[in-house]
Amino acid sequence: MDSRLRARPDLPCAACRTLHRKCSHDCMLAPYFPADEPEKFASVHKVFGASNVIKLLLMVEEGRREDAVKSMVYEAYARLRDPVYGCTTAISYLQKCVEDLRGQLRTTREKVLESQEQRDRLLRVLMDDPYLKPTHLPAGGMVCGSGGSFMLDNMIHDGHCGTFAESWPMI
């Protein structure tokens, strides 16, 4: 929900309340620091100062001001949590996560390529194996008698006699 809709007109905004001044209907900070969220402005004020916040908002076009305030609030919270590094701690952590994920992705892609190459080698071996090729089938595709290959000879010894389609192993 937009912070402008949550602001109550009968209460001063969090900025004016913190600065102990009267909040006018055209208060520049009211849309971004509603009365029900005083901690937002308190954090931003403590880190940046009220005059710097106003100067920054004046430099930003009106359509981008809400994003600028969100950024200032995030940076202020980060600076209060970690006074030395501020939001760079979070940025460094996220950059490390991205690098770790890129490494995992690279490893996974290598494994996929390796599996595909292994599959291709296996298929080439199977296709080149003379015992798996039906080279000596009689007319009509019947597998009976000596077919001249290990697979066909084993079928005959097992007493199996049928069409080629039902005797060919599924790969």
TrEMBL record:
Residue span(s) of domain LOB: 11-112
Domain of life: Eukaryota
InterPro entries documented for this protein: LOB
Pfam families to which the protein is assigned, alphabetical: LOB (PF03195)
Signal peptide start-end: none
Similarity comment: Belongs to the LOB domain-containing protein family.
Protein name: LOB domain-containing protein 25-like
Gene (name only): LOC103701525
